[in-house]
Design brief:
This protein is α/β, with parallel strands linked by helices. The protein is built from 24 helices and ten strands. Helix 4 links the parallel strand 4 and strand 5. Helix 5 packs across helix 6 and helix 5 crosses helix 23.
């Protein structure tokens, strides 16, 4: 409902306006009546309205004086309609000069009043849409600058934009928020449903953060099968709620789980002192997520807690670990199982604490990451971590036991073997063709890897290396480029264009279009017409 303020020193005029029409049927409600301009001025200093209807001739402060003051002092941006008699018509013209929207002659005609209200309603709806579009574009541009910082590919302009458009105080942490409900992992759920659920989570997070909603980032992950959201947590955010980061995130998690009716898990990266270094926190959160399978189940993982180990009595089973790493590197599958067995026997004999076992597992995993990096210095380590995350849990194995580690080690050994093979030439040409011919479909690297008998994680790495962006971003750019052709050469509606290029969720399509082209599809079409 649009809020209306009526101002007139004659009570019967006020009563007549109230009774003249059904205000609520037109989308308006009268929230206040005043007897003169001064009374209205005082009310407007503390209250917001959308429409002011004021008589020109009133004691203490006239309607014209009221209009002039609120415009000069920027007290209200409400539509202003003056009431005037025939003898005051020249005053009405003056009111128009002061940016009054219109005037009503006394006695007010019902049809004339309704006509003005409907005009105001239409303008309000149009303004609201433009404002929403502006906010969406600003949010998309802010997110783009934040992601440049997260991925470590930024310049001073990116940093300054983020600092100028966000409150950044105290230490900063990057937090991954993801679903752990079986629903989101089901093969029966299509991308549209998953995206809608992800968007629901994103909006719930924005609602909780209120004025800090820009700290919530939608669709950060480069993994096309990931439906998580990101959060930039600054220490002042907890201080406002009289909580530390643990209390803040626990309260946020409870709120979000209630809002989306699903269970969530969080991975908190290392603390950095300045937003310039947020990529370190982002990388550590991704690392923590990838190594989660080797740890006991928790709702919230903190990087600094997971990697810290008491120095007193720490034992690193280096010889056993190095033997296992060597067998993985040489693809000696038979030896791998024996090395894992020997490692666990040493754990048992040494009576190591869970923290010390974690230290040993961390050593193993980081050495394996190093092996992959040595094979190709340009390999994206985030893709290696993604492989670890995808292959560290299988049905029938328990977290952290011998069978679990043996299975993972064999998988990783084969993965390293694929890295040694020169597979990038022909396969990427085939994938380019796949995108051209099937971009409307739900193409994933996993499906393409199965089709061409190549590990999907490695496929993602060589794709990133050649094109400078992930397969997911490449596909998105291709789809959006195809949509511009349809916008330019057809009169299809935006919803139809979205579906034609592979997006069942038109809101998601519009968001991606804004990120790439800097404006909505509708505005782009008008500019190119």
């Amino acid at each position: 409902m649009l809020r209306v303020l009526l101002v007139d020193d004659e009570p019967f005029i006020i009563q007549g306006l109230k009774a003249l029409i059904e205000w609520k049927d037109e989308g308006f409600e009268i929230v206040k009546t005043c007897m003169n301009g001064q009374e209205a001025y005082d009310y407007l200093k503390e209250n917001k309205v959308d429409l002011i209807i004021a008589d020109i001739q009133m004691p203490i402060m006239t309607g014209l004086e009221l209009l002039k003051r609120i415009k000069e002092e920027h007290i209200s941006d409400a539509f202003f309609v003056v009431l005037t008699g025939y003898k005051d018509f020249s005053y009405a013209q003056t009111a128009i000069e002061y940016e009054a929207m219109n005037y009503l002659l006394k006695p007010v005609e019902k049809a004339e009043l309704i006509n003005i209200l409907r005009k105001i309603n239409n303008i309000s709806v149009s303004n609201a849409k433009e404002e929403q579009s502006r906010k969406e574009m600003e949010a998309a541009y802010l997110a783009r600058n934040i992601m440049a910082l997260l991925f470590g590919k930024h310049d001073r302009q990116n940093v300054e934009y983020v600092k100028n458009h966000m409150q950044i105080e105290g230490g900063v942490y990057y937090v991954v928020i993801e679903f752990i409900d079986e629903f989101i992992m089901s093969e029966d759920i299509d991308e549209t449903e998953m995206r809608q659920t992800q968007r629901h989570l994103y909006r719930a997070c924005q609602d909780y953060l209120k004025e800090d909603q820009g700290h919530c980032i939608f669709d950060v992950s480069r993994d096309e099968k990931s439906y998580d959201i990101g959060l930039l947590y600054c220490e002042y955010m907890g201080a406002k709620r009289e909580a530390d980061i643990h209390g803040f995130l626990n309260d946020l998690k409870d709120y979000l789980e209630t809002a989306v009716d699903m269970r969530l898990r969080m991975f908190v990266g290392k603390k950095v002192d300045d937003i310039n270094s947020i990529s370190k926190s982002y990388t550590s959160a991704c690392t923590l997520k990838s190594l989660e399978a080797f740890r006991s189940k928790k709702d919230i993982y903190f990087y600094e807690s997971e990697v810290s180990v008491n120095n007193t009595g720490v034992v690193l089973c280096k010889n056993s670990l190095d033997d296992l790493i060597s067998s993985i590197e040489s693809k000696d599958i038979d030896k791998i199982d024996g090395c894992v067995m020997a490692l666990f026997e040493e754990f048992k004999k040494s009576g190591l604490s869970s923290q010390t076992v974690n230290l040993n597992v961390n050593y193993l995993l980081f050495q394996l990451i190093h092996l992959a990096s040595e094979l190709d210095s340009e390999i994206d380590q985030e893709e290696i971590l993604r492989f670890i995350g995808e292959h560290s849990v299988e049905d029938g194995t328990m977290r952290g036991d011998k069978e679990h580690l043996s299975l993972f080690a064999r998988e990783y050994s084969m993965y390293l073997d694929q890295l040694r093979q020169n597979v990038s030439g022909g396969i990427l040409l085939d994938i380019e063709k796949e995108v051209r011919e099937n971009y409307k479909e739900n193409i994933t690297l996993k499906d393409l890897g199965q089709k061409y008998f190549v590990n999907s994680s490695y496929l993602g790495q060589i794709f990133q290396k050649k094109y400078g962006l992930s397969f997911k971003d490449y596909l998105t750019n291709y789809r959006i480029n195809e949509s511009t052709k349809l916008l330019l050469n057809t009169d299809m509606k935006i919803v139809q264009v979205a579906e034609e290029v592979g997006y069942k969720d038109s809101d998601y399509f519009v968001r991606k279009f804004i990120e790439i082209n800097g404006c909505t599809p509708t505005k782009w079409r008008k500019q190119k017409a």
